[in-house]
From TrEMBL:
InterPro entries: NLP_P60_dom, Papain-like_cys_pep_sf, PG_Endopeptidase_C40. Residues 197-314 form the NlpC/P60 domain. It comes from the Bacteria. The keyword Protease applies. Residues 22-77, 134-186 form a coiled coil. This is NlpC/P60 family protein. Belongs to the peptidase C40 family.
């Protein structure tokens, strides 16, 4: 019993609630970061949708102004023709015959009557078309305005969700050990890497040149990045325009299989398609990962489950 008491004194009592291991804490951080990344892409998409709607609204307002101007002008023309009619400028065939001095005079008067009738009919039709165009433009402008208001509200909600998720991820990051934080903050492989010629090579070189630069949600560079802004700017540097979000990039170019992946290919991750990287070769990719982690090279399959691989060139 004495021996048992000594052993009991030496062995520390297990806490009531087990503390999470470093691996568990890192896993939780990665999960929170992935969710924040998805919300970031949702927020960016909503901003892009709003910009498109604003463009539609601006065009609708321009169309409305043009239609209203045309309506005003044509209404004046119709008023003039109506006034001319009321003043006796319009004659019937019988009155034209009665007042004509000769057959030629009759033909001239009939020609004038027909021209007036045609002009008035054409002016009335144009006025009707202009009024309809103005009505349609008004409807389109109103619809675009309402859509923009809805998107603005949606953006505010998504931004609030993103801010909340970021706060959770940041709190989880602060709970990580210094050893884990230092590992995350490492820039990884900074060696010179040969890139192929052509568009894909130029895009890859741009991405590689950003290694070591910080990740910031929603950033567009030039010294901080999120995952999709890095890929967009990389291809922009090579003269190719692709979408801002990972969702848009998941539809760029053409699809290729995992075994075909090569330098410059865009690799989109997760079923949500919320993260994107660029292949360095068939094994490695460069990407802007998440907050606390700089742009760096990683094993393609270690980044996450691959959704799709897209090739922009070739």
């Amino acid at each position: 019993m004495a021996t048992a008491a000594v052993v009991a004194a030496v062995i520390p009592t297990a806490p009531a609630t087990a503390q999470p291991s470093a691996a568990d804490a890192l896993k939780k951080y990665n999960e929170l970061s992935e969710k924040a990344s998805q919300l970031n892409q949702d927020h960016l998409k909503a901003q892009g949708d709003l910009a498109a709607k604003q463009g539609e609204l601006d065009k609708a307002k321009g169309d409305l102004a043009t239609a209203q101007k045309a309506e005003e002008s044509l209404r004046g023309q119709v008023d003039l023709l109506t006034e001319a009619t009321n003043s006796g400028a319009r004659f019937s065939q019988i009155s034209a015959l009665l007042v004509s001095d000769s057959q030629q005079d009759f033909l001239n008067r009939m020609s004038a009557i027909n021209i007036l009738a045609a002009d008035n009919a054409e002016a009335l039709q144009k006025l009707t078309d202009a009024v309809n165009a103005a009505d349609n433009a008004t409807k389109t402008a109103n619809e675009a305005t309402e859509a923009s208001k809805k998107l603005l509200a949606e953006i505010e909600v998504k931004k609030a969700d993103l801010d909340k998720q970021l706060a959770e991820a940041q709190a989880q990051y602060r709970s990580l050990s210094n050893t884990v934080k230092n590992q995350l903050a490492s820039s990884g492989d900074m060696s010179n890497i040969s890139v192929p010629p052509g568009t894909a090579g130029r895009a890859l070189q741009f991405a590689l040149d950003q290694r070591g630069e910080p990740y910031v949600y929603g950033s567009n560079g030039p010294d901080t990045w999120d995952c999709s802004s890095l890929i967009q700017k990389a291809y922009a540097s090579a003269g190719v325009s692709i979408g801002r979000t990972s969702y848009a990039q998941a539809a760029a170019g053409r699809p290729v299989g995992r075994g075909e992946a090569k330098a410059g290919d865009i690799i989109v991750y997760y079923s949500s398609q919320s993260h994107v990287a660029m292949a360095v070769d068939g094994i490695r990719a460069v990407h802007a990962s998440t907050e606390g982690v700089p742009v760096k090279i990683a094993d393609i399959d270690s980044i996450g489950p691959i959704s799709v691989i897209r090739r922009i060139e070739g």
